[in-house]
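Weekly modeling sync, notes
Attendees: AB, CL, MP (scribe)

Item 1: holo prediction request
CL wants a bound-state model with pyridoxal-5'-phosphate before deciding which constructs to order. AB pointed out that an apo prediction alone won't tell us much about the pocket. Agreed to run with the ligand included and paste results into these notes for async review.

Input as submitted:
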Amino acid sequence: MIFLDNASTTSLCKSGVENLLKYSQELFYNPSASYSVGFENYKQIQGVKALLAKKLGVEFKNNIIFTGSATEATNLAIFGSYRKNWKKAVFSAGEHPSVYNCSLELEARGVKVEFVDLDQSGAVDLEKLSKALDEDVAFLSIMQVSNETGAINNLEKIFALKQQKCKNAIFHVDGVQAFGKLNVDLTKFNPDFYTISAHKFHGPKGLGALYAKNPQKLKPVTLGGGQEYNLRSGTENLPAIMALYGALNELKETDFARVTKINQAFKEELKKNLEPKISLKIMEGENFSPYVMSLSFKGIKGEVLQNLCDSQGLLISTGSACSSKKSGNRILENIGHTQEEIVGSIRVSFSRETTLEEALEGANILANCTNTLWRNTR
Ligand code: PLP
């Protein structure tokens, strides 16, 4: 089986598995317990937070909150910040459902919500963003890397625009498809909140984290025993947090260059083996993450292609896994893809574990399946 759907999830790394077991069995003690082994686990968690803060380029000052997912982290950033006097909130049209659906809830609460269109490259249109930002804006949320297309937003420019137009607006960045893949340095775009998800970079599922520049300004969304600075109550998921520690330690500077080569090799092999008459559109360019690739085959149904690839041992996606149950694609539509291009679109995504052999074989299977479908429909 060749797995090229790593934007949906990745396998847990070796030291993550070891820590998951160790802190589920041998050292399972509740980190909030007042006896020594419990306190020892609490200190371990602080160590993981400190390492995560370091990898984000910031100092650790009780500014990392662990949650049950990135979705939950985003909900905390948005609804923990929300105040009744909010007039306006601005979102990019490319946001993941975990942000997009929160924006709809804000609208239902009476906030004026504006979605800023994406340009043809899939990044947020900076001119339109500039027009949308004004002094009424209380909250701005822009993702760093698109889970649909891999397009990277220029967060430095976006932060500069925000400072110019609405200095006091709260700035949230969904970093789920960026952190652990791209070099992330929060000091470059100074977000108030930054969301990550452990399972996207060989950490465990069911663990998200929210970086909060000023956590004291947040109101809790989950009430209970007061864990996570009273902002996200519930017994800490110690095994998962320690598994994340493993994943953070296994991140390598060289991963990005490796995946860039894999991405390139995949594209070349696919183009080489595809019937020349089949029109293929790949979203690519300078400002794209090499980990995610959106492709569209004219005259082919992405869903049928995905099923055929599955039967041939290649796992890919027809879009974000979280939204694949819904018809259409709000994001590709916004970029300006035609209906035919949307129907024919698939997403291929790599991880540092993807080998060159897998990428080449995957490209061959994809080309063969596309060729078969194309011939069958002529
Ligand atoms: N944001 C983006 C960009 C994503 O790709 C995903 C998951 O696909 C999420 C948020 C949600 O992450 P989680 O599964 O941890 O809730």
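Recorded for review: The longest helix spans residues 36-56.
Action items: CL to compare against the apo run; MP to circulate these notes.
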